[in-house]
Amino acid sequence: MGWLSRAGRALELIKFSHTVFAMPFALAAMLVAAGGLPAWRVLGLILWCLVTARTAAMAFNRYVDWDYDRANPRTAGRQHLATRRLALGLTWVALLGFIAGTWFLNVLCFMLAPLAMIMILSYSLTKRFTSFTHFFLGLALAAAPMGAWAAVTGDLRAWPPWVLAFAVLSWVFGFDLIYSTMDVEFDRCAGLSSFPSRFGIPAALRLAGALHLLAWLGLGAFGLACGFGWRYAIGWALVAAALIFEHGLARTGDVARVNTAFFQANAFVGIVVLGAVAAEVFG
């Protein structure tokens, strides 16, 4: 029970449940690239790389932000879950696991692994020097569909993964702006940079709205690039409804509702996109 308890604390420390944000888009790219399910070995390695990359990113974030998280009332409760040393150790284990996964996939994935590592780790440091840290989070998660496509095809010259990556970048950039409105006062007091703390919450919500419009249009362009039909169009419409719902909650200023907007609405977006892509590929 001791090991299970420690494992549970580690998963909560890195917010493992938030893997649901990047994974559906990576799996959607995988299905399109393979024209269905790839070989089970490739599918397993893609899932392995997604989980290890996400774990490394979050564990490193906990390590470098340990003192800030301890001082922030919203995140202070995480400190009982583990130690800073555990967060660092988990980062190294996950990175090694990620590199091993890319090695067993193909040459392109292994060659791009260092760039992917820089992208997924650098986000945690950007809040020290730029108000556009949210862009770097979007960039890191946008790598997921690109990596899945490369894992299946060994090539990145096709348009669909790039279009989907643009949509994911815009989507994540937008929802992280919304999420960061909860930390405006703390960021200002701690000397951390974020778009809402520098330009204000109304400006952040307006930018998030513009980015989510771009994300929605990007998802539409992805469907066109893949030659999808009415099944995907239904999913595309549901994504629009979810994003409108998210922004309606965000504008209330209620912390509980912002949390709902962040997790439930965005998890729904990813699941709907994956479902719509699967309906087209297997339909």
Describe the overall structure.
By secondary structure, the protein is mostly helical. It has one domain: Tetracycline Repressor, domain 2 (Orthogonal Bundle). It is 80% helix and 0% strand. The protein has helices at 2-13, 23-34, 40-64, 66-71, 84-105, 107-126, 133-153, 160-180, 184-190, 195-199, 201-226, 230-250, 255-282. α2 packs parallel to α13 (255-282), α5 runs antiparallel to α6 and α11 (201-226) packs antiparallel against α12. It is globular. The model has no long low-confidence stretch (mean pLDDT 88).
Overall mean pLDDT score?
Answer: 88
What's the domain count? Answer: 1
**CATH fold node name:** Tetracycline Repressor, domain 2
CATH class designation: Mainly Alpha
- Using only C-alpha atoms, the radius of gyration works out to 19 Å
Number of DSSP strand runs? 0
Helix/sheet category = mainly alpha
Query: Could you tell me the strand content as a percent range?
Result: under 5%
Number of helical segments with 4 or more residues: 13
Give the end-to-end Cα distance, rounded to a whole number of Å. 45 Å
By CATH, the superfamily comes out as UbiA prenyltransferase
What labels would you give this structure?
283 residues; mainly alpha; globular
